[in-house]
Amino acid sequence: xxxxxDGPAGAGKSTVAxxxxxxxxxxxxxxxxxxxALTVKALRLKINLEDAQALTGLAAKTVIDLCNEAGKPLxxxxxxxxxxxxxxxxxxxNNTFYIARTSGVRHVMVDHQRRMGQxxxxxxxxxxxxxxxxxxxxxxxxxxxxxxxRCKRRVDELRAKGQVVDEExxxxxxxxxxxxxxxxxxxxxxxxxxxxxxxxxxxxxDQVVDFIASRVRLT
Length: 219
Ligand code: C5P
Prior knowledge:
This protein is an alpha/beta fold. It has nine helices and eight strands. Cytidine-5'-monophosphate is lined by residues 9, 31-32, 35-36, 96-97, 100, 126-128, 177, 181, 187.
């Protein structure tokens, strides 16, 4: 069984997907973490982020594992190294779109994600899971929320981690990221025709999780 949750940045996808996976006792696949992990490597190796061929070659020889251990946060392992923290830096966040817009990279990632989906039941979150990666997924959701609410959630999340946040810059980055994700030619952010749209503006994380769980169980 595959449950896909797509949507824009800051809609709460990862938090919802993680809790839902725990509730249903299935794996959690954070596909954004995979694109981020490759970004970490490309930045470290100072690869020209405009060079699609170099990025595709890099994706093909990079091993990215998502480590789901019951009761523990998801670990993102790149070539054997735990990069779970490194992938969340601002530099990585702001450069991931170069990696994500490269069609050769997306092919490698999509193949990898499909293999993971064949091996186990899972909840996956991303941008193109319902449209491209798992077009035949049993359950598809598109999670959205008002822009201001999404910004506030991101600000709260970063502040809770002790980070100093420039709210204006964050809003600008988030809007830019949405635009980049929606306008790229390969795997753009888009609601699948058969996905259930959830507007979480006035909903808590638990309410969203319960709503999805009820849909999954009833159908
Ligand atoms: O979900 P998260 O914000 O961590 O994703 C980081 C970036 O990775 C997104 O802004 C998007 O550009 C890219 N991404 C993607 N396709 C996915 C998941 C993430 O292009 N399935």
